[in-house]
Design brief:
Two copies of one chain form a homodimer. Chain A is mainly α. Helices cover 76% and strands 0% of the residues of chain A. Chain A contains 14 helices and no strands. The longest helix of chain A is centred in the middle third of the chain and has 27 residues.
Chain lengths: 233, 233
């Protein structure tokens, strides 16, 4: 990929995350890059092509981080998975934030997205299976399937949920990232009842790592934030 | 409310659910009702006012069904709550399906929505507290909070998730309703680890009541559907 193409994608991603994809035009992107609209069109004929290219990036990054582990899992490996998930959720947050709009606008992207979800859930099943085989969680097959689907729901809905309740956060990166991190905490709540052994011993550490102070009562619902700011700071 | 206003809302709701709010104009609504656009405008000046009126209905219905129980809970009362939730999710599915678009288009609606979420989570906390007090679930305070937030995430994201993966379902009510029902199954997966006593004895019955055959593998991901159709039929 040429360096200009790369820069167009990087800049578009930053603008989409901060301002929302629908508020950003190709002219805005060209302006932010200091290039002419004609130069931009030479690389990407329209905004939809930029969105698609960013989706490909997102997909490659997330699927890459969901490779099943080669060795037995331990609770530290789980941190790796959570951090990878969080990085993807955070880096491409515009995507899930406005998914229905994006899929509606581009049937081809909608099909790619369905394939992507299928790949994610297949890899997710392998990872949860490895967690079970390694004695980190104790689940039967039905619990494992339910856990995986619920984890995917949180993963894919969290950005949009946060944005619906705190649209102001998009302009405040520190707040936005804190809110996004808490999505991982909610995933930990999901698997918590099934944790065994060493993983259970480290539960409190894991919760503390991702828990956003007052996220559900103050930050998420937009109640007075002083207390939350203090605790999170 | 006059009977014409009532009819406008009923017809708009049916069209929004089937075709998506953004594909339905006030002219479509007037045509479906067999009234003139002028008559429609007399009652609702624009589509946003219809969406707001429908949101008020949705809100009243859902909050009404989330009254905390007067007596001790048992597993049958839980069925009542699940059925009420499902009815609201199904009846107003266009709303959560396209939430980000709707909130973006109307800041006043966005504020109402935030107040609504706050009211839902307050009532949800009371209900989960009652479930705990009645010995149906065994949770500490942190688990209860996590469980409630995750239940809300599934409740509010399920319609959009289903629609993103199976946009074709909007035109097939039987499939669409089956997919929506499975959202309740996913909520049962959430609370399952915490169930005790009588409620645990009835777990299989509850799961069977809401489980959509092959939802996660076939229906949800759009894999070949013959097997799913047979099992679900």
């Amino acid at each position: 990929m040429t360096s200009t193409k790369q820069r167009i994608l990087d800049t578009s991603l930053a603008l989409f995350n901060r301002q929302g994809e629908r508020n950003v035009t190709t002219n805005h992107i060209a302006e932010a890059l200091g290039i002419s609209p004609g130069n931009l069109y030479y690389h990407y004929r329209n905004k939809g092509m930029i969105v698609s290219a960013l989706f490909d990036r997102y997909q490659a990054q997330l699927l890459g981080s969901l490779e099943a582990p080669q060795e037995a899992m331990n609770w530290r490996v789980k941190v790796y998975y959570f951090e990878s998930l969080l990085a993807s959720m955070w880096q491409f947050r515009f995507f899930h934030r406005d998914l229905s709009h994006l899929l509606h606008a581009d049937p081809e992207l909608a099909q790619s997205y369905r394939n992507f979800v299928q790949a994610v859930t297949e890899r997710g099943a392998l990872i949860f299976g490895a967690l079970r085989d390694s004695g980190i969680i104790k689940v039967d097959d039905e619990q494992l399937q339910g856990l995986m689907v619920n984890t995917w729901i949180i993963m894919s809905s969290w950005a949009s949920l946060v944005h619906g309740l705190r649209p102001d956060a998009a302009g405040d990166e520190a707040l936005d990232e804190r809110l996004m991190r808490h999505g991982i905490y909610q995933m930990i709540c999901l698997e918590e009842p099934f944790l065994t052994g060493e993983a259970r011993e480290h539960l409190e550490e894991m919760r503390a790592r991702y828990r956003g102070a007052e996220v559900t009562t103050s930050l998420l619902l937009g109640l007075p934030e002083e207390a939350a700011e203090e605790k999170a700071g």
